[in-house]
Write a structure and sequence with these properties.
By secondary structure, the chain is mainly α. Helices cover 82% and strands 0% of the residues. Helix 1 runs antiparallel to helix 2. The protein is elongated.
């Protein structure tokens, strides 16, 4: 039997995407400055993480295509 392994890049991407969506909803619905600042900080970290993760996925895909 073949066991499917969980792709770590996919898990990280999904986690960062969920963090980004929750930060956006926190900023939209919050009424306090502290929550707004926390939400904006989390948005910045999530966007940076998503960009790095997508870049890593892209490089791994190119490497898999070029080195069969």
């Amino acid at each position: 039997m073949h066991m499917k392994s969980i792709n770590l890049n996919c898990v990280i991407f999904c986690t960062l995407f969920i963090a980004l969506m929750s930060a956006i909803s926190t900023v939209i619905f919050s009424e306090q400055t502290l929550h707004d600042n926390f939400g904006f900080s989390l948005i910045i970290f999530a966007i940076i993480g998503l960009c790095l993760n997508v870049g890593s996925i892209f490089v791994n895909t190119i490497r898999d295509i070029c080195n069969p």
